[in-house]
Amino acid sequence: MTNPELIEEISALEERIKDLEHSESERKRAEEALLKSEEKFRTIFNGASDGILIADIATKKFFQGNSAICSMLGYTKEEIESLAIYDIHPSKDISHVLDEFEKQARGEKLLPKICRY
After folding, report:
1. Is the pLDDT of residue 70 over 80?
2. What's the pTM value of the predicted model, to 2 decimals?
3. Nearest alpha-carbon partner for 96 in 82, 106, 110, 83
């Protein structure tokens, strides 16, 4: 390689290093923002006085419930994780509950309804 080619190569490598450093700092900022967001979610979820259940859309099984829902239903958090929608609603309400669940999964706005426990 000639001297001008080496200088050009070094310049290109320096530019690439700057790009990588910028990408790394962007990744760190995104990671910090995600951690803050997760912390906010956990605080709201765990501190809510309303019962909250998070379910898998396909299986209708719960994979997380807050303390309020555990108190309302009389289950531990571990027990909640072994249940599905079918396990906590009366059989005569299941078709309505599934319809509402599917609407919510599609992002449709739901009106509050009173559920029997």
Report:
1. yes
2. 0.68
3. 110
